[in-house]
User: What shape does this take?
Amino acid sequence: MAELVRPPRLSAGARVAVVATSGPVQEERLQAGLDVLRGWDLDPVAAPHALARDAELGYLAGSDAERAADLQRAWCDPSVSAVLCARGGYGAQRLVDLLDWEAMRAAGPKVFVGFSDATVLHEAFATRLGLATLYGPVAAGADFVKSTEAQEHLRATLLAPETVRTIASRGTALVGGRATGVTVGGCLRLLATGIGTPHTHTGTRGGLLLLEDVGEAPYSLDRSITQLLRSGLLDGVAGILLGSWDRCGPYERLRPMLLDRLGGLGVPVLEEFGFGHCEAALTMPLGVAAELDADAGTLTLREPALS
Assistant: This one.
């Protein structure tokens, strides 16, 4: 896999747009997230439909057209340096084909941050724009507004990325060893359901694959990983980092399945790395060359996540 273009780091006073790309957002959490960003001396602005809710489909933050317009308007606004997702949920898949990718390419590289349902957008930014992104906390997420650790790691990644070249965790080796490659991945279900669509990666050969999910039983996660295996998406993967599995059952039941499905690949696998749906979630760069040391529990970036 090839490295992607790293967008510029943020500086004091940078304007940051917060966009609801998926599910509805709670106003108090949005305001709390905006306050956190203001505390970093940034200039956060909420997109026009950040607090909208689709009248018919209440699980969406406004209509597909409204969410797509908010994202494209923010990305193409020359005064905006970064776009942060407000929350996850569901809906990003519905808007990704409504975006004018040529206009967004012309707007130049910017920082994009989100996780979970935003996986489909990370994939699209990579395949359509050749852009590295940040798989990190959402601005109006409960874990983000309550976790100083998650806030600090995102702040450092945005404003002083050279200080977080090595990302360490309390994770342990499911399969030991070291590997180098370009980071890719995100939420397991989104990766599995994206197979065959225009914006998904066609493979992870030579890559370091990040996987995490929430609210899925072990057999359901098994099904999604098996889909990745059968599709050929994992052929030639260099290493794997496993994040959080919140509400996926006791980990002692999940671990044997992960070892069964991934252990046979013959590559290092680091478990419980601490990104995704968890407290103190780490911000993980996607599209950046790095070295995985499963035994040490570290991911070391060849260069800072942002230029």
The mean pLDDT is 96. The longest strand covers residues 178-187. The chain has two domains: 15-162, 166-301.
